[in-house]
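Regression test case RT-17, inverse folding.

Input:
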């Protein structure tokens, strides 16, 4: 099975993602078998039927998304989900997604194509969070891979994301996924780019 937007059964990564380097930058190849059906190995929390999905924010899930909380030390790293959901209603190119574990909302992300330059191959992943109790289990990396697949299907070839300089957890996650630091935004956030 190949990576695609929508429902994805969580299985171990076999083989590992192919990353090719150019200096410190990496290119994530999304054309490889990400999850192999029939593999007897199981996911990080030992559940054989674990499902991670991205779903559009809807009438049915927005309240659960708005109630998600970060740990106290992470609270100032990004805007509240409620703010981001409201913002998406006035910016039609924003793509808000809830991250679900089976049917339970565990996180939120939002991305958009670049409309300022415009560059049809450039997308921005500018909101990403998992509720505090769901962090450190591998769910975030899977959710980002799903979002990257959606962006690639929409025409993205480059994705830029950002994080606060003090957010070491986000930095490690993005670098592990092949993003490379490319500079700083006007507000001081670290900007990272991935070619897909």
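Golden output:
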């Amino acid at each position: 099975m190949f990576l695609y937007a929508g429902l994805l059964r969580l299985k171990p990564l076999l083989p590992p993602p192919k990353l090719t380097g150019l200096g410190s930058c990496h290119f994530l190849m999304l054309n490889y078998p990400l999850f192999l059906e029939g593999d007897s190995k199981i996911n990080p929390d030992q559940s054989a039927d674990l499902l991670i999905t991205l779903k559009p924010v809807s009438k049915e899930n927005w309240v659960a998304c708005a109630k998600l909380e970060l740990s106290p030390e992470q609270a100032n790293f990004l805007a509240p989900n409620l703010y981001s959901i409201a913002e998406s209603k006035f910016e039609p190119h924003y793509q808000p997604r809830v991250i679900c574990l089976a049917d339970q909302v565990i996180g939120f992300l939002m991305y958009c194509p670049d409309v300022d330059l415009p560059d049809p191959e450039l997308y921005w992943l500018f909101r990403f969070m998992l509720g505090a109790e769901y962090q450190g289990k591998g769910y975030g990396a899977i959710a980002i891979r799903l979002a990257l697949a959606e962006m690639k299907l929409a025409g993205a070839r480059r994705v830029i994301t950002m994080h606060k300089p003090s957010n070491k957890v986000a930095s490690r996650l993005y670098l592990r996924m092949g993003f490379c630091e490319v500079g700083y935004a006007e507000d001081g956030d670290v900007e990272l780019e991935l070619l897909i």
